[in-house]
Amino acid sequence: MRVICVKWGNKYGPEWVYRLKAAVKHWFRVDHEFVCLTDLPIKDVECVDCESDGLPTWWSKVGLFRPGRFPGKNLYLDLDVVLTGPIDGLVNEFVPGKVVAPDDFSYSLLNPKQGLGPSMRRLLGGAGTVNSSVMLWEGGDGAEVWRDFTAEKMSEVHGDQNWITQALWPDKLALLSPGWVQSYKYHYMRGDVGGPIVVFHGDPKVTQLPKSHPLRLEWSACYE
Description:
21% of the residues lie in helices and 18% in strands.
């Protein structure tokens, strides 16, 4: 089992990788290795160089599906997620032949928004999208994400998760079971607290919360 994160450029410092690695060690008791796909080596972390992929910012995630790069079972986590409880049960979420990811919080695949114009549907990559903050796949599953990608996609769709959806939905993409992932903005801030993975999409990030906030304390605790 492999747990992977992506760090490209300087938006996130190495401390984000260290904190996620420590949180995974604490909350994921399944035997695993922790790997960072990055353009800059990080001391004391196993790194896989993605510079040759030539993909900037979040588009570096396309390189997760480069054939032969990550054989076996893989769990991907964004650097800015916060773990608040055990995630061992994710090993039961793999679907043979498919990439597994949560339905998006804003533009759901299961309950697509009505009245979207052609421009928005183009940016979304369809009627809705997955959220790529958390993904599971095995071996060569999702190879189309790398194989069919072109530079033009970076201007055609909004981001990596939209391309992943466009490339794989519905035949080779499955939705993560409800209850694993919650959005800080759409769930946690509204009192819907639950699920061991909190996704900080957009702003704020966990570092923008007060130092006494439970999630910021959780983010700091495992590493400090």
